[in-house]
Amino acid sequence: MTQSILIVDDEAPARERLERMIKSIDSCSSITSAKNGYEALDKIKSSPPDILFLDIQMPEMNGFDILRNLEHRPFSIVFQTAYDQFAINAFEESASDYLLKPFEIDRLKKAYHKAIQDKIFKVPHQLDNVLNNHKQYIEKLMIKQGNTLTQIKVCDIDFFTSKDHYTCAYIGEKEYVLDLSLSYLENQLDPKTFFRCHRSQIISLSKISRLELGPQMYVIYNSSIRVEVSRQNRSKMRDLFRLQKSSSKCFNLKRED
Q1: Residue 158: other Cβ atoms inside 10 A
Q2: Strand 208-213 relative to strand 148-153, pairing
Q3: What strands lie across the sheet with 30-34, from one edge to the other?
């Protein structure tokens, strides 16, 4: 069966060497490549491969950033890198294998066939729950605007909201449309910084200017934007807000009667 393969690496010699090696293992494979994260995301979203060979250390967006901008991963992942310190993170991302550069053809052959099996049987390869202590939260998001991808930092975002089957991120009054669901983002964002205050909204705790209390509860941002907090989350919202503001001793719980 022909395998579609995407090689992502910022170094052209590394991409070319890996392509030659894969062709020597499977001459029928269909191989494309990407030289950076922007190009990789565009290719993955338009035509997902069967196997993704992914470098880790790349400028602007590393391999983990690429994966965290994908809600669905219908492919096997083989990391290939010159650094061994990312192995735990790699298997946390359900990688089939982790190749240390420079690797030889026999080592690649094992990784390649393992990736094919994982794709066929959808077998996850994850370490034990101890990996939860090493969880890496998403720090950058890729936003498609027209035919270009724009990178924004998660720490700059005030809140996320879901509307009409898509998700928007807001920085001040500027809106960015994402193709990631709130449920996916909830699991990928640092819970110390972001809180799902409503089924349709996730807020940045550090950006809140004040809480507005009354028949409804709202979080207020400096831009005067109001985001409603669901009834079941109001008590937790008060506690989280106080915790966030305690270090600066700045509390602003405004009651609207």
Answers
A1: 21
A2: unpaired
A3: 30-34, 4-8, 51-54, 76-81, 97-100
